[in-house]
Task: structure prediction
Amino acid sequence: MNIVYNGEMESRAFKEILGKEIPALAEKDPDVIYLDADLMSCIGTAKWAAAHPDRAINCGIAESNMIGVACGLASQGFKPICHTFGPFASRRCFDQLFLSAGYTGNDITVIGTDPGITAAFNGGTHMPFEDMALYRAIPTATVIDIADANQLISVLNQVSDIKGVKYIRVPRKLTAKVYADGETTPIGKGNTIREGKDAVVFATGIMIHEAMMAAAELAKEGIEISVVDMFTVKPIDKECVLKYAKATGAVVTAENHNKIGGLYSAVTEVLAGELPVPVEYVAVEDVYGEVGPQDYLRKAFDLTSDHIVRKVKKAIGRK
Amino acid sequence: MDAELKKSLQKLAAQIRIGTVESIKSRGFGHIGGALSVCDALAVLYGSQMTVDPANPKMPTRDKLVCSKGHAGPAVYAALALKGFYPYDEIKTLNQPGTKFPSHCDCNKTPGVDITTGSLGQGTSLAAGIALADKLKKQSCRTFLIVGDGEINEGQCWEAFMFAAAKKLSNLVVLIDWNKKQLDGYTKDILPNEDLDGKMKAFGFETVKINGNDVEALYEALENTKKGGDKPYAIVMDTVKGAGVKEVEETMSNHSMTVGADKFDEWLAELREKLAALE
Result:
């Protein structure tokens, strides 16, 4: 795996990637069909959609119907990719995701943009800290929290052929670049971003950058940590979790999500049964979101490298 | 309408009713009222409108049925058994452990069931998606959506209706089972939804209101949906909940009923008598 992380931001926003990749997928595979709930303009697909009304369906502000229509299409052999903001892609249409998609066996992909604090100025009403928890509760679902642009491209190119309900949470703004261009990040496998013997941080999404900054701080004190991008939160890479838990004996999870039901839950579900080492979390406490700049929210919800440093030391202290 | 066809559809409706009651009898309880109200529609659909192949239930170019009021499953199972999708006696395993015939329609369990339904409202969007799929594939088949009048309390139905009209899904036929009752009582006392034909017309549907327990009226209305155009079709079926079994019709709370085997036998005798009169 070619990791190029150096703390610098991506040159391309995710919006640009989605606006290019969704049409590319549809053009490559005639069964791929894109559905949106009146947010095409937010991810740069509107122009292409207008020119391709048979490949892009604007369902209006009706997310439950969008998921149902996608499932109807899937039942007839199409491979739907649906998009809306994270809260509307999860809690707004959960029964449809669970029954019309999951239970019925209709394979659909859902992209939820602006996860957690990246919803920033849309505020608490638009700030999903529970989307991964909801999707994880759907049997056999695939749940992915995207870290960088290259990973997004890689995941989009793998996901249409995976069975079941697939959820990809994607920030629309710039994030730190992690992977080299063209790198494939296989779904279901954790990626080691950094190796260290004293503790491991399993992180996802925007928290990779925070974890890497924490690692640099800890290194100054002689503490070396591993950082693993556990972007597939379900199915969790059990082998990887056990390997690093065993090698380091101290585990920290870091996610832009409620501590309930997301990465922390997934990792502890593996470790509780097989290797109960000390586990600490960096995640949103069981609270609702609020409005503000992302940097303010990062601090308000303790999703910072400083907090990761504290939690790593705490986990090591519990060994 | 050809007299012979009419008689054959009336007989099929009677047979579907018998199958519905026989399967519910096997468990002693079930959603009998809303199953009996749609038996005539199922008879006309499977008996005169739908191209399906029991040997190839998933044939892509088949006409599709979405019974969004999934609790009418026993009536659908009886219709599919009579159509030859599986041996008739199998429907008497309704709701037994491991059965192919659960309370609510499940396409992963029952051959010939086109899509899973049960959480009310969801079938409407599924049907719109299926009709859209056929349209995109330029297939001439139709999708028939049976939706309950209580079910349309669910907002998702209206999202789907707006969508179907916006996307000009003229290959979609919505049959609203206007039996005027839902679980807790009359629809007019819970969420009144009168003037359904006016509502569907306003939503952009080519709409007609008919006696939904009359095979001739159903046949004429369904034949009329073959003409294409750029609007989806809605048929408001004025029906009686529990239609065909007098005692069920007259029972106020007939959404789901539990009665003894003797009572089921009485009802079956009544239905068999009606069938015999058609022979």
User: Anything to note?
Assistant: Strands of chain B lie at 29-30, 64-67, 143-148, 172-178, 181-182, 185-186, 206-211, 233-238, 257-258.
